[in-house]
Amino acid sequence: AVLMDIQMPRMDGIQATLEIRKKGGRFAEIPIIAMTAHARREDRNRCLSAGMTGYVSKPIDAEKLLRLIEKLAFRSSPERLSPPPTVEQVETTISSSAPIVDLAMAKKRMGGDQDILDEMIGAFLEDAPVLMSELEQACEANDDVAAHRAAHSLKGLSATFDATPLVNAAFRLEQFAKSQGLLSETPLLKDVQNELERVIQLLSTQTRDQ
Q1: Element (H, E) at 56
Q2: pLDDT of the chain along its 210 residues, tens only?
Q3: String of b and e for 152-173 (b: at least 16 CB within 10 Å)?
Q4: 3-state secondary structure of 18
């Protein structure tokens, strides 16, 4: 297993993990455990979404770390936590019948761990409306930099659940903001709002069913 320090000086642990996973082969399966001083849920979710297999916060609890390593070493059907699909990958799968989300694929990406999936859903339901509000304000103010940033963040958050229609809508608005078009008049914002509403309704149902 690789013990990955998130706060490295030249390349942070998130980027290092993405680079390792890109190599494929045995590098796609090797367990990577994040070590970070940040214990916030969003920090943990960033690590897991990047493809890390586990997470421990500093100061390191040796017993907890050993239990985690043991769990990963003896997992009968090892499935690494792989990163969400890129926009390019999502674009190739878009169709009129694309599902709102693909929770089965999301759960598989999270190593089949329902607790992690539930936590990620909870984080999405908290964070996505905040990003949507930032995006709406940026579009109203014709702030292309803020709109690009918010759309990009929402796109990445949505990719965690393979929410293809929402990812695609956010991507189109992100590209429009980059072109410095008139944001206050684009219908693309409405597309994002509609798709986000569908995702939130579905994920909210999932949490009620738990």
Answers
A1: strand 54-57
A2: 688 887 766 678 888 888 888 877 777 778 888 887 666 777 777 777 778 877 777 666 677 777 777 776 655 344 444 555 444 444 444 444 678 999 998 887 767 778 878 888 888 898 899 999 999 999 999 999 999 989 988 888 888 888 999 999 999 999 999 887 789 989 999 999 999 999 999 999 886 555
A3: bbbbbbbbbbbbbbbbbbbbbb
A4: helix
Question: Domain 87-209 maps to which CATH number in 1.20.120.160, 3.30.1360.20, 1.10.490.110, 3.90.1150.10?
Answer: 1.20.120.160
Scored b (16 or more CB within 10 A) or e, 5-43 reads ebeeeeeebbebbeebbeeeeeeeebbbbbbbeeeeeeb
Q: Are 94 and 171 in contact (CB under 8 A)?
A: no
